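Quick log. Single chain, no ligands specified.
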Amino acid sequence: MIESGKWVNVCPLLRAEKETTLRYQMNNWIGLLIALSLAIVAGVLNWKYLERKTEEVEMVSFLAIKEGEMVEAGKKFTEGNFTRLNIPQKSVGSLQNSAVLYKDLDTVVNVNALRNYRGGEVVMLQDLKTPPRKLSLNPGEVAFFVPVGGNSFVAKHFAPGDEVTFTLAPPRKINFNKAPAPLPETSEEKTDWNLTDNNEVEIIQGPTKFIGPFRVIAVGGRLSTYDVSRAQGGRVGQESNLGVAIKFENGQYDQKGRDLIDRVNGPGFRHAGVILNSKGKNN
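-> predicted structure:
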C-alpha cells in the first residue's frame, strides 16, 4: 500500500507528465497545420506566378481564314472571311516575314484571291502579289522573244522567273546524188533546176540543238503566272512567244544568246521547242 502521505507527492508528477504529453501533441498539430498552410500558400503563389508569366508571353496575330469559310480564286476577300490566329512570339520563326499580320487586314479586304482558300489557312504575302507592269530585266540584260509552239508547249504552265532551254532543229540540207537537168529555156518557170522523178535527192536532218538555260521574263503579253493574271482580271491572249533575258555587256551578247538569235533569225526557222527546267538558280 502506498501511504497517504506519498499520494501527495505522486499526483503532481502525473499531472506534469500529462501536461507535457498534451503540450507535445499540440505542438505537433500546430507544426502540421503550419506546414500545410505554407504548402497551400506556396501552391497558390506558384500558380499565380505561372498565370502571370502566361499572360506576359508575347503573342503575334496573323490573318487567317475563318473555319468553315472558303474563298475561291478570283473572288474578292471580305472582312467576314478572316479571323485572328495568335501564335507565341518564340514559336513564330520565319512566319512573321512570310505571312500577313492581322493588323494589316484592311490591305487585304477587296483584293482578289489568287488561289482557293479554306478555313484555317494563313494568308501568305506571296499570295497577294500583283502582276508587274514592265519586264523584269537586270542590268546587263536585254529581252528577246522566241516564237514557240507545237504540242509540247502548254503556255499556262510557264511563268516569268522560270528557267527554260530551247530545242532547235537545224536547217535541213539537200544532197543531190545526181545533178538535176536544167530546165529548157522555153519553160515559163525561171528555175535553175528541173527536179524530176529521175533525180536522186537526199534530205539530211542534223541533230537537235539545245540552247540555254534562259530566264523567262514574259509569256506572250503575260508578265506573271497564269493564275495571278487571270485572278487580277488580266486577259490571257496569244502566248506563242516566250520572252527571255539575254546577257548583253560591252556591246556583245554572251555565246548562248548569240547562238539563239542566229538560229531564230536563220533560214527555215518556224518555232522552237521548250524544256521547262527544274527550279534552281537562274542564269
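The mean pLDDT is 77.
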